[in-house]
Design brief:
- The complex is a heterodimer of chains A (601) and B (30).
- In chain A, 61% of the residues lie in helices and 5% in strands.
- Chain A has helices at 3-32, 43-53, 63-87, 103-114, 124-127, 130-160, 170-196, 252-261, 282-306, 310-336, 340-344, 368-381, 396-407, 418-438, 451-477, 479-482, 490-504, 519-548, 565-599, and strands at 206-219, 237-247, 443-444, 447-448.
- In chain A, the strands form two sheets. Chain A has a two-stranded antiparallel sheet. In chain A, strands 3-4 form a two-stranded antiparallel ribbon.
- The longest helix of chain A is centred in the C-terminal third of the chain and has 35 residues, at 565-599.
- The chains are: A mainly alpha (601), B mainly alpha (30).
Chain lengths: 601, 30
C-alpha cells in the first residue's frame, strides 16, 4: 500500500465529516417535521402535495398502516417501471429505436430499482430508451432512497417517542425526504458533474471513425446468447477488428447524481462509473465517492439529534468508520501487491512515478489502484453498487472484502436510510447481548428491549443470509445456474455468491463474469432483491411501533452507556461476528480457495 | 408472459403483507 492511498483515505474521511455534519442538521429537521433551513420556500409546494394526496402532516400512522402504505407505494412503482420498459419501443425519447425490454428482464429491473438494489442484467446504452432511463429508472432512484430514509426516521421516532401510538406518516416522510434532501442535492451534484464533463442531452448516438483500427478478442456467444465453452469448460474466444465506434449519448448527469446520492448505483452505461461520460475526472471520482457516503453519514448525526443525544450518533458513526477503515486498508493492500503469475514472468509491478504497480487488471488507468480500491470499498460498504473498476478482476483477497462488506448487511454506512436502520438493529442486538452478560433487562436509548423486539431483530438480521445462502445453493445445484458462470472453479462460485449477496443486501454491483440476464437469474435475483429489502423493513417497522409505545426511562447507575468506546467495540464485534458466522463457510469455498490456489503454486 | 410477471410483482406484495400480519401476530403493538 502506498502513502498516496493512505492520504486519499484520510482526505476522503475528513471531507466526509465536514459535509455530513451540517447535513445532519438538515436531515434532523426533515425527520422531525420542522422548517428546513434555506428551503422554507418549498413548504407551500409540500402543503400542496399533501392536499392533492388527501393526507396531512399531523396524520400519524401506526406501524402496520405505515408498512402497508410503504408496500403499496413500492408495488405501484414496480408495476410502473415494468410497464414503461415493456412499451418503451412505442414511446417518445427513443432516438435509437430501442425495442421493448423482454418480460423477464423488465421484471428483474423493476424489482431491482424499486428495492434500491439497481442490479442490472441489461446493458443501459444497448437496451434502455431515454424515457425509460430518465422517467422510470431515475424516478425510482429518488423514491427508493426516500423509502429508506422514511423507515430510518420511523425507527428513530420509535426510540425518541414517549408512549406514542404512531411512528410518523409515510407520505409525509417520503415527500419531505425527496423535496428537501434528494432533489436539491441531486440538482447541485448534477450541475457539478456536467461541469466536469458528464453529458446531459437527448441526442442520437454518434458514429465516429477510429484513428487506428482496433483488433480485440471477446467471448463468442451461441445462438442462445450464452457464452460458448470448449471441452475444458473455457470460454471460446473470437477475434474482431473495429474501424468505427458508436458513442452513446443521453441524459447522464441527472441520473448519475441521484445514482450516487441515493446509493442506487445503476449506471446509465454498462461500464458504470468507469465510463468517462459518467465519471469524467479524478475530482468527479472523489466527489462520487463522497456523495455515496454523504447521506448515510449525515443520518447518523440526524439520529443523534432526533433522540436528543448527539453522542449516540457519533457512536454509530464511529462503529461504521472503524470497520470501513480496516476493510479499505485491506483492499488497498491486496490490490497493490504483485500478482504471482506476472511476477514469475519478470513483470515489474512496483509502484513508481511512471506506473501504479500492483494489480491493474480491470481498473481505469485514470484512477489507478488507490481510487479504484477505495471506490470498491465505498460502494460495497454503502449499498450503492456503482463501480469504477471490475471487482471480478480484483485479487482474490481484494475481491473478498467488497463481498464481505456487502454480507455484513450493508450497515457500514450502508444505503440511504437502510444503513442507519440496519445498524440500529445490530445496536439492539448488542445491548441485548450485553444485558445477558450483566444480568439486566437490556435498554437502548431509554427503551426496554424485550422479547418482541428481539424476535423482530432476529428476523431482520437472518432474512438476508437465508436468501443469499439458499439462493447460491440452488444456483450451483441447477444447470440453469451453472450455465451463467464464465470462470469455472472457485472463482465461478464467487461470481454466484456475489450475485446473491449483492441482490439480497440491495447493493447491486456485480462481480462480472456471470451471465445473469437469463430467466433463471432474473427470477431468482428478483426474489432475493424484493424480500431482502421489504422482509427486512417490515420487522424493523414492527420494532419501531413497539418501541414507540413504551415509556422512555431515565438513565441511572445501572444503565449501560451506549455512546462510549466500549459500546462501539461491542457493536463492531456483533456486526463482524454475525457476518462471519453466516458467511465464512461460503467464503472459504470461493475467494479463500482461490487465494490459496494462486499463492501456493 | 406479461400477466405472469405482473402477477409475480403483485404476489410479492401480497406475501410481504402476509408476512407483516405474521409479525404482528408475534405480539407487536400498533
Amino acid at each position: 500500500m502506498t502513502s498516496q492511498s493512505l492520504l486519499l483515505l484520510a482526505a476522503f474521511l475528513a471531507a466526509l465529516l465536514v459535509l455530513a455534519y451540517p447535513l445532519g442538521i438538515v436531515l434532523a429537521r426533515v425527520g422531525d417535521g420542522g422548517a428546513v433551513p434555506g428551503l422554507g420556500w418549498l413548504a407551500r409546494l409540500e402543503r400542496l402535495l399533501y392536499r392533492m394526496a388527501g393526507t396531512g402532516a399531523d396524520d400519524g400512522m401506526g406501524w402496520k398502516r405505515y408498512a402497508v402504505a410503504l408496500l403499496s407505494f413500492n408495488v405501484l412503482g414496480a408495476l410502473f417501471v415494468y410497464l414503461v420498459q415493456r412499451v418503451q419501443g412505442w414511446l417518445p425519447l427513443n432516438p435509437q429505436a430501442m425495442p421493448n425490454i423482454a418480460p423477464d428482464s423488465a421484471f428483474n429491473t423493476a424489482v431491482s430499482f424499486v428495492s434500491n438494489t439497481n442490479w442490472q442484467g441489461y446493458s443501459g446504452e444497448q437496451a434502455m430508451s431515454y424515457l425509460s432511463q430518465a422517467l422510470a429508472l431515475t424516478g425510482q432512484n429518488f423514491f427508493s432512497a426516500a423509502t429508506g430514509m422514511a423507515v430510518a426516521f420511523a425507527l428513530v421516532r420509535g426510540f425518541s417517542a414517549r408512549s406514542a401510538k404512531v411512528i410518523g406518516n409515510f407520505w409525509v416522510d417520503i415527500t419531505r425526504s425527496t423535496l428537501y434532501v434528494l432533489l436539491p442535492l441531486s440538482l447541485l451534484f448534477a450541475v457539478f458533474l456536467m461541469g466536469q464533463g458528464a453529458i446531459q442531452n437527448f441526442s442520437a448516438y454518434k458514429d465516429v471513425t477510429l484513428l487506428d483500427p482496433v483488433t480485440y478478442s471477446q467471448p463468442k456467444n451461441g445462438a442462445d446468447g450464452q457464452p460458448l465453452k470448449d471441452d475444458k469448460g473455457q470460454p471460446v474466444m473470437e477475434t474482431l477488428t473495429a474501424t468505427t465506434q458508436t458513442i452513446a449519448m443521453g441524459p447522464v448527469a441527472s441520473q448519475e447524481a441521484i445514482k450516487m446520492l441515493g446509493t442506487n448505483g445503476g449506471g446509465f452505461f454498462n461500464a458504470n462509473s468507469a465510463h468517462p461520460y459518467e465519471n469524467p475526472t479524478p475530482l468527479a471520482n472523489f466527489m462520487q465517492m463522497l456523495s455515496i457516503f454523504l447521506i448515510p453519514a449525515g443520518l447518523c448525526f440526524a439520529f443523534g439529534r432526533m433522540v436528543g443525544d448527539l453522542r449516540q450518533g457519533w457512536a454509530v458513526l464511529g462503529a461504521m468508520t472503524l470497520i470501513f477503515v480496516v476493510c479499505t486498508v485491506f483492499v488497498l493492500g491486496a490490490e497493490q501487491q504483485a500478482h504471482p503469475a506476472l511476477h514469475a514472468m519478470g513483470v515489474d509491478q512496483t509502484a513508481s512515478a511512471l506506473q501504479p504497480g500492483g494489480n491493474m487488471e480491470g481498473k481505469e488507468a485514470r484512477f489507478g489502484i488507490s481510487a479504484s480500491a477505495l471506490f470498491a470499498a465505498v460502494t460495497t460498504a454503502a449499498s450503492c453498487g456503482a463501480v469504477n473498476a471490475m471487482h471480478d478482476s480484483f485479487m482474490p483477497a481484494g475481491g473478498m472484502i467488497p463481498l464481505l462488506l456487502i454480507q455484513f448487511g450493508e450497515v457500514i454506512f450502508g444505503g440511504v436510510g437502510s444503513g442507519l436502520y440496519g445498524m440500529l438493529v445490530f445496536a439492539i442486538m448488542a445491548v441485548f447481548i450485553a444485558g445477558l452478560m450483566i444480568g439486566r433487562t437490556p435498554e437502548y436509548l431509554g427503551k426496554k428491549i424485550q422479547a418482541y423486539e428481539m424476535k423482530m431483530t432476529s428476523i431482520a438480521i437472518l432474512v438476508t443470509p437465508l436468501l443469499v445462502l439458499a439462493g447460491t445453493a440452488v444456483a450451483v445445484m441447477l444447470d440453469a445456474g451453472k450455465a451463467g458462470i464464465a470462470n469455472p472453479g472457485a472463482h465461478g462460485f464467487s461470481e454466484i455468491l456475489y450475485a446473491f449477496s449483492s441482490a439480497a443486501n440491495n447493493n447491486g454491483s456485480a462481480f462480472a463474469g456471470l451471465s445473469a440476464n437469463t430467466p433463471f437469474y432474473n427470477g431468482m435475483l428478483a426474489v432475493a432483491m424484493w424480500f431482502g429489502r421489504f422482509a427486512m423493513i417490515v420487522p424493523i417497522l414492527a420494532v419501531a411501533g413497539s418501541l414507540a409505545g413504551k415509556q422512555r426511562l431515565e438513565a441511572n447507575a445501572g444503565t449501560m452507556p451506549t455512546h462510549g468506546p466500549m459500546f462501539v467495540s461491542l457493536l463492531v464485534g456483533v456486526v463482524v461476528l454475525v457476518g462471519v458466522l453466516n458467511y465464512v463457510p461460503a467464503l472459504a469455498l470461493g475467494p479463500v480457495v482461490e487465494h490459496l490456489q494462486l499463492f501456493t503454486k | 408472459m406479461d400477466i405472469v410477471f405482473i402477477g409475480a410483482i403483485v404476489a410479492f406484495f401480497a406475501v410481504t403483507c402476509a408476512f407483516a400480519a405474521a409479525c404482528d401476530l408475534l405480539g407487536g403493538r400498533s
